[in-house]
Every structure is written in structure tokens, then in C-alpha cells.
Amino acid sequence: MKDYPKWDYQEYPKTLPRQDFWGQVRRTQFGRPVSEAEIGAIVRAIREGLALRADDVVLDLACGNGALSARLFDACRGLLGVDLSAYLIEIAQESFARPPDFQFVCQDVLEYVFSEPAPERFRKAMCYAGMQYLVPGDLVRLLDGLWDRFRGLEVIFLGNVPDREKAELFFAEGPFDESLLREPKSQIGVWWSRDELGDVAAVAGWGAEFSQMSEGVFNSRYRYDAVLTRRPRRS
What we know:
Blueprint: H1 21-24, E1 28-29, E2 32-33, H2 36-50, E3 57-61, E4 78-83, H3 86-95, E5 102-106, H4 109-113, E6 124-128, H5 136-149, E7 155-162, H6 167-170, H7 194-204, E8 206-212, E9 223-230
């Protein structure tokens, strides 16, 4: 069986050229950056999922080096990217930031959600290919904190989520260790079924709608996107 080792989010980007933006955040296929057409499909899905408006201020959680965030600048009034990697945030600030409206900060996303001093300014939020690297309990806390503190938040876009029901398409070379599917430090992170993610979101006060990733993106067979909208919490 093929080995799928863990990877070091903090150190791996430092092994690549400073301008290899997609490689640093592993927007790659077999180590090569995905095509511009695939990036375009991803950006369209985010814009449509968030229903971006010119007056929106967007929160991008686990933003990495900001390369994807920057593709949204022309569709909104402002964006704040948050990531725990000081190295990637340094690159984001160097290559993509446009203060004061488009900025990036280095902080653990969960700590940020519970310490942001002006959460009411945000209308849209996203986390692209990042939520699966959270411990499931921390995802629950994250969604709960966004509902409770970010009262103006209307929509959350969760992109590139590994689909538990289609994991076998990724682990195609034979039997695999079931424990890998719940390991946030694995290559893919935690695999979520749509039902499971929908239930977690509903408890935190978010309704969830799901869509398969665009066929134009190489890993779309076993990934999906989720759009969460604010609803009354379950009693």
C-alpha cells in the first residue's frame, strides 16, 4: 500500500522558492502547480458561493500565503486573511497585502475568532482547504464562535473538503488505515461526510448546502464545497 506521510505545514513551504505561491500551499498535482484554468474554477466557486458584493468585507481563515485571497480583492471592499504560519503571512504581506483594506495577520484561527476586536465588520467568511486540518472539536468551536461573535456574518464558504464517502477514490491502491481519515496532521487531513458536516454546522447555527467541486479541478472526484448560512440554533 502506498504510504501517505504526515506533513509539516510550518516547515514545508520554506523548502520551495519564495515565488512558488501555489506550491507553498500545496495547490499542486504530483508536485506541480495546478493550471490557471483550475485556479480560475476555484475562484469562481468561491465568488459564487459567497455571493460577493462590492461592499463586503471578507474574513479568510487559514489563508496561507494570500495568493488565493488576492483573487477576490476586486470583488469586495476589504479582506483580512488569518493564518498560523508566520512564514506564509510574511509572504502574503510582502506580495499581496494592500493596506488598509486588504491585510493579513499571523494567528491561530481559533484564537483569532475569539479575540477579534471588531467582528461586526465582516459579512462573508471562507476557509479554503483548511478546515480539515483542524481537530473536529476545534471546528465545532470555530463555527460556534463565528455564529456567536461575528453577528453580521451571513455566509461561510468551506472549500475543497475531503469527502468521507469518496475516500476510496483517493486511497485507490488498496486497503487503507481508517484512522487516517480522522487525522488532522495527515496529508489530506480529516475526511468529512456531508451529513456529518451538516450536523456539526446545524448545532452551531448554520445551515449547509453542498456542491461537488468543479470537474475542471483535478481532485474534484473526492472533494466538495459547502456554503453555510446563518440560521437559528437548535435548542
